[in-house]
Design brief:
heterodimer; A: 573 residues; alpha/beta; Rossmann fold; six-stranded parallel sheet; 22 helices; globular; B: alpha+beta; Alpha-Beta Plaits; 2 domains; five-stranded antiparallel sheet; four-stranded antiparallel sheet; 9 strands
Chain lengths: 573, 158
């Protein structure tokens, strides 16, 4: 407040605005168009700048931080290549609805459009992968633009917002005024659900014999886990979750069914098939969840609550759409449903029988080290309370199956975009936000190479992340599809001859590293890694090469047609 | 089915691009789009003509609403509205057909905006259907160039 009315330059205004938005961390990388900002930053004490080694890393770190804390992640990069390097991270945050504000430097206003050195039309490039973006043309607009960007990124369905700041805007000065409130006439998200609609839902649910809650990441964004738990228990309704929804309901509760969809549990998908009322909350009927649309939940009356009206009736026609915040929806639903509950024991017993019929299992007989074992063991040793970050691929799906998530904001994973290389930087970002729980990363040997440079950032900042490298020397998920659907042509997925020695790589970066090749060694290494506090630690788990993730619904298939095991046993290990 | 959608948007640079990008990114049909300032200089009105079934048009309208620079979206298709398009067209002019051409201009309530030795430029205003018919009818006389504005539309007053 003390600076209000004072004449400040654009860079000073930038930091003053970040203070007003309570920003703790900036993930950034300097460059020509941002020299003034970095000059000001040199004296800034109260906001910590984390120097990344590639701008993509900054975006994933910001997203990891945002997902772990619920606060918007902040990225600062220079113009041109600095800006274009953020594209994948922005697209990732957009697909997974993570709040993020990306600041890009830009060439001076007078040079825009002239193909100037390090010029890229980043506002044009990111238009379809941001919730909104801005080019600031006058320093007088800077404060209001930053205010708007944080408001948009965190209000309604969260998402990334980009602000492009030309060099001359950052250099010129004006009187600083912080807008206390912000009003954007084209942005009025519906937060409160229509009460009549919720009453209808309550009525339908109360009478349901085989209801099922289908919970997505929206419940976590809305901080609605308490309401969900109270409602599910009060109404005795089983809960299945999407990849992003895991942790919204405690994984060890008898009503928890784990994940549904392509690699979901057998009993979840059978329950979707058989339920009479499906209550989707903060989920978007993604193709990885529904499989073949026509056969998805064919007997169910479908209720769909989502904060974004475009998600309603997008992939699937629902019977009762309810636009609004998940927290409001579940809280009102909790009040509106009667205390006397329809007898759901037969339904729960049926689910239990599916659970017994096809439990999640893996081979523990042959003494080989398997990913499932590693994840299972980490789940046990952390009692399901770690913040778990994953990369993309087989290990990601096994994480959904074998880690028992006990809390919301505990799985940080690239769901929508499926970005390999997301995991390592996202874990680093998460560890800046969360210091009272271990942050563990499961990452494949393919994905870790996609942003390996950020290991320096973790070492330099002594970020105590546990990097559990699931090393099968294969691009395992692609290999799995090649085996199942592409005539076993393992085209460019075998990395055995080209992978580096990950222990040496880690050590060269200054990171402690261990290797494990047997279940016993893995158990001990996990214990050691979890106890290690002095910066990052990497464990290279050399797991079997050709395991596959089951159950699996082939793309476009009905979720009732799950593959439960390998078609051709001769291709085993 | 054809839909005519009227959209009030912030009169800022890039807004037209945002709308057009959204249509192409989502794979929606965009038959025509026109934009101009309204009585409030901060607001522009866009008229969009698109072909879509009920489910898609629902998404089109929701996705338009979702854009931050969009203030109001109205599907005029099933409401009382006026829809007009402007056609400017230059035709070859020959002595033998001159008479016929002038008659046809009258039939379509067109106006001659320019005339030269060997060509004539006319304007015709009407519904996009009428503009289509006009073009079909004049084609045999030799169209040198034409420009269509795309439809603009407005709700009828009460």
């Amino acid at each position: 407040m003390h600076l209000s009315g004072h004449t400040l330059n654009g860079s000073e205004i930038f930091f003053e605005c970040l203070r007003r938005e309570h920003v703790e961390y900036i993930f950034g990388y300097p460059g020509g168009s941002l020299l003034k900002v970095y000059e000001t930053l040199y004296e800034v004490q109260d906001i910590r700048h984390i120097l990344v080694r590639h701008e993509q890393g900054a975006t994933h770190m910001a997203e990891g931080y945002a997902r772990a804390t619920g606060k918007p992640g902040v990225v600062l990069v220079t113009s041109g290549p600095g800006a274009t390097n953020t594209v994948t991270g922005i697209a990732n945050a957009y697909m997974d609805s993570s709040p993020m504000v990306v600041f890009t430097g830009q060439v001076p206003s007078s040079l825009i459009g002239n193909d100037a050195f390090q010029e890229a039309d980043i506002v044009g490039i990111t238009r379809s992968i941001t919730k909104h973006n801005f080019l600031v043309k006058d320093v007088k607009e800077l404060a209001l633009t930053i205010r708007k960007a944080f408001f948009l990124a965190t209000t309604g369905r969260p998402g990334p917002v980009l602000i492009d700041m030309p060099k001359d805007v950052l250099n010129s000065s004006c009187a600083f005024h912080w807008p206390e409130s912000v009003d954007i006439r084209g942005f009025k998200p519906t937060i409160k659900c229509h009460i009549n609609q919720v009453e209808k839902a309550a009525h339908k649910i109360a009478k349901a014999k085989r209801p099922l809650l289908y919970i997505g990441g929206g419940v976590i964004s809305a901080e609605a886990s308490e309401e969900l738990r109270a409602f599910a228990i009060k109404q005795n309704i089983p809960v299945t979750m999407t990849l992003q929804g895991l942790g919204a309901f405690p994984g060890n509760h008898p009503l928890s069914m784990g994940m549904l969809g392509m690699h979901g549990t057998y009993w979840s998908n059978q329950a979707v098939n058989a339920c009479d009322v499906l209550i989707a909350v903060g989920a978007r009927f993604d193709d990885r969840v529904t499989g073949k649309i026509d056969t998805f939940a064919p007997h169910a009356f479908k209720i769909h609550n989502d904060i974004d009206p475009t998600n309603v009736d997008k992939n699937i026609k629902v019977d009762l759409p309810i636009v609004g915040d998940a927290k409001d929806f579940l809280a009102v639903l909790l009040e509106e449903t009667p205390n006397t509950v329809e007898n759901r024991e037969p339904w729960l017993a049926e689910i239990q029988s599916w659970r017994e019929q096809c439990p999640l299992t893996y081979n523990m007989e042959d003494g080989a080290l398997r990913t499932e074992f590693v994840i299972d063991e980490v789940s046990k040793q952390t009692a399901g309370h770690a913040v778990v970050v994953t990369d993309v691929g087989q290990h990601q799906m096994w994480t959904s199956q074998y880690y028992t998530f006990m809390n919301p904001r505990s799985i940080i994973t690239s769901g929508g975009l499926g970005t390999m290389g997301f995991g390592l930087p996202a874990a680093i970002g998460a560890a800046f936000g969360i210091t009272d729980r271990p942050v563990v990363l499961f990452c494949g040997d393919g994905g870790i190479m996609m942003n390996i440079q950020e290991l320096v950032t973790a070492v330099h900042c002594k970020t105590p992340i546990k990097i559990f490298l699931i090393n099968n020397s294969f691009l395992g998920m692609v290999r799995q599809w090649q085996e199942l659907f592409h005539k076993e042509k393992y085209s460019f997925t075998d990395l055995a001859d080209s992978n580096p020695d990950f222990i040496k790589v880690a050590e060269a970066f200054g990171c402690k590293a261990l290797a494990a090749e047997t279940p016993d060694a893995a158990k001990a290494a996990i214990k050691e890694a979890l106890a290690y506090k002095d910066g990052p630690i990497l464990v290279d788990f050399r797991v079997v090469k050709k395991d596959m993730v089951f159950p699996m619904v082939p793309a476009g298939g009905s979720i009732s047609d799950m593959l439960l095991a390998r078609l051709n046993p001769k291709t085993m290990v | 089915m054809k839909h005519i959608i009227s959209v009030l948007v912030e009169n800022k640079f890039g807004t037209l691009n945002r709308v057009a990008t959204m249509f192409s990114a989502r794979g929606f049909n965009l038959s025509s789009i026109s934009i101009g300032e309204t009585e409030d200089p901060e607001i522009s009105r866009m008229t969009i003509v698109t072909f879509a079934d009920d489910q898609i048009i629902n998404q089109v309208i929701k996705q338009l609403n979702r854009l931050i620079d969009t203030i109001k979206v109205t599907d005029l298709t099933n409401q009382p509205h006026v829809e007009r398009e402007l056609l400017l067209m230059t035709l070859k002019l020959s002595k033998t057909q001159q008479h016929e051409i002038f008659e046809l201009i009258n039939v379509f309530k067109g106006k001659v905006v320019d005339i030269k030795q060997k060509s004539i430029t006319i304007e015709v205003i009407g519904s996009p259907d009428k503009i289509n018919t006009t073009i079909d009818i004049f084609k045999p006389y030799g169209i040198k160039e034409l420009a269509r504005s795309g439809a603009v539309a407005i709700h009828r007053g009460e």
